[in-house]
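ERR on first pass: missing label on line 2. Operator R.T. fixed the label and resubmitted. Corrected input:
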Amino acid sequence: LGLILTITAGAGAVAGAAVVKIIADDSKEWTSWLARRLLNIAVRRLPEGRRERYAEEWAAHLAEVPGVIGKLAVSLQFQIAAFRARELEARAHLEAWNNKFFAAAVKAHAIAHETSVWYRAQGPMDAEDEARAQERMLDGLVDIVRVIDEAEDERPALGITVTNATLLVRDFIRDVRVWVLMPRVAAYRRARRRAARRGRSGSSRRSPTGSAPMKPRKGPVIRLSAIPDEPHREAEPEAEHDALHHRPGSEQPKRSAIVEPKRKRASVFGDAPDLTEEEHQRRGDAADALFREIVRRAVGNA
Amino acid sequence: MTAHKLRVLSAIMGADARELSGVEISREAHLASGTLYPMLMQLERCGWLESRWETEDPQALGRPRRRYYRVTGVGEARARAAARELEPVVGRLAWA
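pass 2 clean. output:
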């Protein structure tokens, strides 16, 4: 019985060793296969332009690592490398796109700013100047649309595209409104007040910048009061006074005087002072130089 | 300049041939591949490193070609500046 047991144990040991050898060889093959497979997966995860290069480079790296366990560990590390490389690539891509978007935004803001300075310097402008200013604003919008179009092709994160586009367009509209339209309105009001002060308003009130008749005012802004210390006013014929300034039933001749409304409307800039022609020119030149410099920088950064 | 980047640049600049393959850098700088390769990509993009393929034929070598990394002038200047800053802490580096 002892002999049988010994022979059985010996045979079992030999068979076991053979099985272990087969499993070890098999697992070595399987581990090598797994390492190569993991390497291919990592390469596929890389950005498209880098796959060919790193497939060869990492294969060379893997070939120099001793032992199957070592190879397996390195091929697992390549997964992390691929993930980080993809992240870096995406970040760089987004950064480049944001720079371009920022350049367009700067240009749009510069155009809005320049136009506003120009408006403020020149006051009410004629049709030709106004068309020129509008053309500049349009150029800014065209640039923004172009950048958004390019971004669609490059496919950055959609959420960021939409957010940036929304914010930019909102800022642009705000700039147009605040920097351009408000000073335009302020300039118009100044001109209207100047015209009223000079007593040029006839019976039919007209716009100081054009020939279109103005709409009648709503609410009592102008009232009559006696101004005895103005001799030249006395010579003025009564017909020159605005019909709105005349108070029927008044026995004593009254002269018109402009009285500011009690509640002044809030203005972003308040009243800008009247400027000399030289100052207009200087401001216009400065605005032009500023605009060109900002655009140069913006285009350089794109 | 991070410590890992300085280790990578130090490893390459300290080599006799002044250029090393990825696996050699990994051994010299004691960095895992998952950390090393993204950093090499970053340094290459910044212009601190440049790389080239091994010129030998891979058929003759019996293995895939290696990619060798070399530090550029800009990278060397940056590495030396960083080493000078670290000198009071870690002492003078061999290549610095």
